[in-house]
Amino acid sequence: MSNDQDKGKAKDLKGSAKETLGKATGDKDTERSGKADQAEGKAQQALGKAKDAVSGKK
Question: Distance between CA 4 and CA 6 in Å, rounded?
Answer without folding.
Answer: 5
